[in-house]
Structures are given as structure tokens and as C-alpha cells.
Amino acid sequence: MRTLARFVTSAHKYIIFAWIAIFVILTLFAIKLPGLLEGDGFQTDGEHAAVMDIVSDEFDMPAETMFLVFDNVPDEKIASTLTNVDKLKVASEIVSPLDIDTQYKNTTSYALLHFDNAEKDMSVVVTDIREAVGNEKGITLTGASAISKDINTASQRDLMTAEAIGLPIAIIILLFAFGTVVASFVPLIIGIVTVVSSFGVLAILGGKMDLSIFVLNIIPMLGLALSIDFALLFISRYREERKKSDMHEAISTTIRTAGRSVIFSAFCVFIGLGAMMLIQVDIFQNIAIGGMIVVAMAVLASITLLPSVLIALGDRIDKWQLLKEKSAEANGWRKFANAVIKRPVMITIVAFILLGIAIIPVKNMDLTIPAIDSLPKSYDTRQAFELIDKEFGLADQAAVYVIAERADGWVDEKGLQSMKELEKELSNDPLVDKVTTIFTASDIDSVEQWEQAMLAPEIAAGLSPLIETFVKDDKLMIPVTLRANGSSDAAQDWARDWSDKQTEWNLSIGGQPKFNQEIFDEILDKILYVLLVILVSTFFILMIAFKSILIPIKAILMNIVGLAATFGILVYIFQYGHFGLEAGTIALIIPVIVFSLVFGLSMDYEVFLISRMQEEYAKTLDNDHSTVEGLATTSKIITSAALIMIVLTGAFAFTDVMPVKQIGVGIAIAVAIDATIIRLLLVPSLMKLFGKWNWWLPFRKGPYKLGNWH
């Protein structure tokens, strides 16, 4: 850190120019990022994906299907609209409700728009179809790509809404924290540079990997909050040191102390983000990579650009003072800290009771993969999808594709017997509603009847296309309809059981039930490893940072309890339906993402607080004194940092995309719990109760002595 401090103080002008150049270049890429985002990120390379590739490539089934929904639209208008869409030549097939009775009910109908496996920019396709349809009342395009495009649009609008709410409040908090306009705007500048630069790097990576539309909200949410927090800590320590020494020495000391805390904090956040990469689902990979990029940018900006800007500003950092610094503030926090450590047992018990009550709803948590309900109800795309679901009961059933392989093929007598046997076995499953094979499609009941029919040339000519539809060399495709919603536990269990079933046919399963099952299983199979990586790595980092065994253990346990309470409150708000929200479910990604992000973020405050306690203990070897002084000198800055984090993430509570709303509210609640109950009550109480054992490290002889660590 000393080398870095010398470099920054001697080359601050060059550092500022370098950052300006980097910012300008990356901004040009960042502008392109929204156009590179596609899909919700719930993709994984598994059996489902392999089967759907086979179904699309070898059996000529559509790679995607969208719905054109008609509500109270005359038949003539339906026909002319479909003609206009057909002229675009983007759909491989259009199935009109005027030709299929099952797609027409009362005044509601829908057309199926099938798309082949040719690579298309589906966002452009959606736009083209919507333009061809025009603004005709009662005609709406819906389906996966249309929903994805609308979520992207809603996410961009949500980001602007959250920034419009969060940033002005963050500026007010910074004004109260620093008292001057210039000092208050510097962290904001660092935050903007961090987020825009991170977007630029992500846009560069976007050409080589699929990026989820949710990164558009989560990355700035994390980047702004974290970089402003880092800058707040750094500037506060700098102004403190500036009163005791000249500017360059103050910057140097701040880099060695606050800069060290920033790096340790970033390591904790990195661990949480990196651990998510163990889960092989695109959205976790996206958020992990994007998060690590934004954290790296936040750290680099905080320890290079920020001190360089402070040197360039000099005494102008205190220009345009609006609020005078109150010398009594630290004394107020000191009195509070003394009051806490006088009643450590009572405060600890009360704190754990409050957290325990908040944890209770966790037992009822209902996790689901975000779907159409991610979109606000105001979007026509969602309204149209829910309309045909209501009228035609699309959600009451689930389609799956069974791929069976037989080395000797399927068209000889033994192959046909095997096909019939598999059809019978599937049909006898109580969850199966319909099985489609060459037998059911031709209304032929047995292999003998099929073979006799094939002897007649005219009949054989009509049956041959069925073989081409369902059989390709050694592969047999059997579409199956289940009597269950594709996201239900029953459908997922069915997909898992049939995939694992030992048969002579080497079965593979694709479809929504298999997709959902693979996502859930991937998370459940890897979550223990994610937790172990986060907990063990955090323990060793904090042990090295504070040269203590108890402090890391306490920090980890308190974080786990605080996060459990957060999830309980999320269930109370979103699942039970309070504060004006409809009762719903919790997005499957929420526990993993909130835990991984907040576990690292909350360590910021642990590092900031315990670092100052450690400094005091190194001087006095007095645990009570170091606890009180550490809390007194850092509480204002920790409270301000927490408020900024709460405001910038909590602002997403006023947005419309439900998973993003839940993530924002979850982080805000977790930080609020951490900065109040845990950091202000439990930490000092437990520091008092454990006394000198807080600073115990095995195999170290003699009295505690820190040495020249800073």
C-alpha cells in the first residue's frame, strides 16, 4: 500500500487523464449494452437444451413459437393481419385460428407463429411483427421473445426511475455527511465512472457471451452503492487525516488505512460473486461476472482516481459549505456505545429475539422461476398471455418431448414393437394426458395393423410422412402432454424420474418441466458448495485482516442470522402480499443473489468498524476502550454509507420488474438490519462480552501487538 500511495501522490495528473480516456472509450461501448441483452438468463447446458436442439434440427419442430392474440376482432381482420405478418417472411409457419377450432373460443382466438432454427435477431423480429400489426385494438403479440423484449424495455425504464429517486436522496445524505457541495459530489462522480466503465466492459464481453436483461439493473444497483460507499469511507478518513498533516501525507495515510479496508471489503464481495459462478445457470454467471467487473472498477477508482481527484482539488474539497461539522457528533456516538456495552447481555437477547421473529416466515418461502409475472400488469404482452391462458387453459398442461434411441432403428418389426411398448408405458403414467406416435396419429392400434397397412401402396404413401415426422435414423421423438403446470413439482418430478428411468431405449427429456427441474436441481446441488466457498473464504480473509479467530466467526454467524431475517421479511412482503402488493412468490434467484451480494457488502461495515477498533486496541490493549472508540469514530460514516446503500437499492422498490424489485428491496432490508441491529447493537455487545478473547489467535505468544500493519 505504501508503494501505491507514493505512486498516486506523484502521478495524480496522469492517473486522472488515463481515467478520462478510459471513461470516454468505455462509454462508447456502454451505449450499445441494452441492445446486447436478451432473455432472462435462465439457461443451462443440460438435457433439456440438447433435446430441444435435436427436436428443432432433426425433426424440424419450431425453435420458438409466439402467439398473436385476438380479442373481439372480426374474422376478416384476423385474416388480413396474418397476411401482413406472412409477407414479412420471418415465421416458418403461421397456424391461423380460422383453420383450427381449438384456437378459437367465444370472442378470443390466437394464431401460432412458428420460427425455425435459423439464427434471427428475435428482438428485431418482434419489432417487425408489431409494426406490421400496427396499433390495432385487440391484437397483441406475446410469447418468449416478445416478453423478453418488453422486460428489457421495462428494465431500462426501471433503471431511470430508480436513479431519479435514489441519486438525489444519496446526494442529500452525502451533504449531511460531509457538509460541503464539492465533497458530496465527488463520490457521485466516482460512482458514475465506475458504473459506466463497467457497462462498457460488459458490452465488450457481450459479443462473446449471452447477457441477461437483469444485469442492466443489478450492476448499477451494486456499482453505485459500493463505489459511493468506498468513496465515503475514503474521503471521511482523508478529511480526518488532513487535520493532522499536509495533503500528500494525508492522502498517503488514507490509502494505507482506508484503502486497505476498501480492498479487504472488495475481496469479501468478490468471494460472494465468484461463488455464484459455481452454479451453471446463465443468470448467475452474468451477475457474477458483471458484479466482479463493477467491484474491480469500484476498487480501482477508489484507490487511484479518487485520491488523485482529492489531490487536484486540494482545499477546494471543502468549498461551498452548507453544514458545519459538529464536533459533538462523535461524543454522541461515544455515549451510545458506552450505553450499549453497559447492558451487553440484555441487548444481545433483545436483538436475537427481534431477528428470530423476522426469520419465522422463511419456513413458508415459495420459490419459482420468474416468468410472465416478471412484467408489470400494464403491459399488453402480459395481458394477452394471461387472456389465452384463462380462456384456453394453457397453464393446466405441459408439453414435453421424449427422445428415445435404439441402435437398430425403429422401422423394423422389433423397432415398431419397442415403439408401441414405450407408447403404452408412457400412456399408463397417471400424469400423462396424451402421447403422440405414428400409431396414435394414424389411429392404428397395433404393429400388425401398421404392417398390413404399409403393404397397400396408397395407404403406405399416406403413412410414410408420419415416419419422417417421428423417426430419424436411430432416434424416435414422442411429444407428451402432462396433466400439470410445467412449473409444478409434479411435472418436475415426472421429468426427473423419466430421465433417470433405466430402459432399453436411452431416454432423454425436453420441455418446460425438464427445464425447470434442471434449473432447480442445479441450484440445489451447488448451493452447499457456494455457501462453503463464501463462508470459509470470508473466515480466512477476516482472520488475516484482524488476526483473530472469534471476530470472523461472529461476523459470519451474525450475517447468516441477519440474512435469514431478511428472507423472512421478503416472504412477508412479497409472498404474503403486504404494503399494497399482491400475494405472489419469491423469484428463485433471490436467495442466492441476495445472500452472495449482501454477505460481501455487509462485510464492508464489519471491516470499517473492526479496523478502527483494531487500531485502538493496538495502541491501548483495552478492549472496552477500543470498542467504544471504534464505534464512536465510524458510526457516522457507517450510518451514512448504509443509508446510501439502502436508498440506491431500495429505490428499486418503486420499479415494475418483479425480480429486480425483490432484489433491490432484499438488499435494502439486509443492509438496514446489518447497519442497525447487528452493527450498532450486536457487535459492540459481543465485543464487550468476549473481552480480550476477541483478539485471540492460536499459536501467537506474548501480549497482543499489531505491529506496523498500516
Describe the structure.
By secondary structure, the protein is α+β, with helices and mostly antiparallel strands. It contains 24 helices and twelve strands. The strands form three sheets. Strands 1, 2, 3, 4 and 5 form a five-stranded antiparallel sheet that branches. Strands 7, 8, 9, 10 and 11 form a five-stranded antiparallel sheet that branches.
In brief:
The chain is α+β, with helices and mostly antiparallel strands.
What descriptive keywords fit this protein?
710 residues; alpha+beta; 5-stranded antiparallel sheet
Q: Which sheet architecture does the biggest sheet show? A: 5 strands, antiparallel
State the low-pLDDT regions, or none: 702-710
Residue share in helix = 55-70%
Q: Kindly report the average pLDDT value.
A: 85
What's the tally of helices? 24
**Distance separating the two termini:** 8 Å
How do the helices and strands line up, and which of them pair or pack?
Layout: H1 2-10, H2 12-30, H3 33-36, H4 47-57, E1 64-71, H5 75-86, E2 93-95, E3 104-105, E4 108-115, H6 122-133, E5 139-143, H7 144-178, H8 181-206, H9 215-242, H10 247-276, H11 282-313, H12 328-342, H13 344-359, E6 367-368, H14 380-392, E7 398-405, H15 413-427, E8 432-435, H16 438-442, H17 447-455, H18 457-470, E9 471-472, E10 475-482, H19 489-500, E11 508-511, H20 512-546, H21 550-575, E12 586-587, H22 589-620, H23 623-650, H24 658-690
Parallel strand pairs: 6-12
Antiparallel strand pairs: 1-4, 1-5, 2-4, 3-4, 7-10, 7-11, 8-10, 9-10
